[in-house]
């Protein structure tokens, strides 16, 4: 399936037609105006901001950004409990914190 991408000008125009400004989205997501504008322009990627723009336009991500945000990007490991425990134990014991590559937990 081929998706089309809205231009920045089209995004701004549709937002304006709905009396929504880039600044409104930025304030709602607690980011800078330029960050929202850069996502809308396609200069940077942010799933969270792209989703906010789509909500403001009442459109699907594919209608606004094409195939750029078809899947949510994977982030780094969420579970740092082992490493956090290792750091806390070392500091509480008055010992140097071991290098993170030394005792990696088994996956």
Q: How would you describe what is shown here?
A:
- The protein has six helices and no strands.
- By secondary structure, the protein is mostly helical.
- The model has no long low-confidence stretch (mean pLDDT 87).
- It has a domain at 8-65: 434 Repressor (Amino-terminal Domain) (Orthogonal Bundle).
- The radius of gyration is 21 Å and the shape is elongated.
- Helix content is 51%, strand content 0%.
- The chain has helices spanning 8-17, 22-29, 33-41, 47-57, 61-65, 81-92.
- Helix 2 crosses helix 3.
CATH architecture of the domain at 8-65: Orthogonal Bundle
Mean pLDDT: 87
Note poorly predicted spans. none
Say how many strands there are: 0
* Text of the CATH class of the domain at 8-65: Mainly Alpha
Structural class determined from secondary elements: mainly alpha
CATH topology assignment of the domain at 8-65: 434 Repressor (Amino-terminal Domain)
Count of alpha/pi helices: 6
Characterize the biggest β-sheet: none
Tell me the distance between the termini: 37 Å
The CATH homologous superfamily of the domain at 8-65 is named lambda repressor-like DNA-binding domains
Radius of gyration: 21 Å
Task: Please tell me what the overall shape is.
Answer: elongated
| Series of secondary-structure elements, N-terminal to C-terminal | HHHHHH
Helix amount, in percent?
A: 40-55%
Strand content: under 5%
InterPro entries: Lambda_DNA-bd_dom_sf (IPR010982)
Region (Disordered): 71-107
GO molecular function, one term: DNA binding
Biased composition (Basic and acidic residues): 71-87
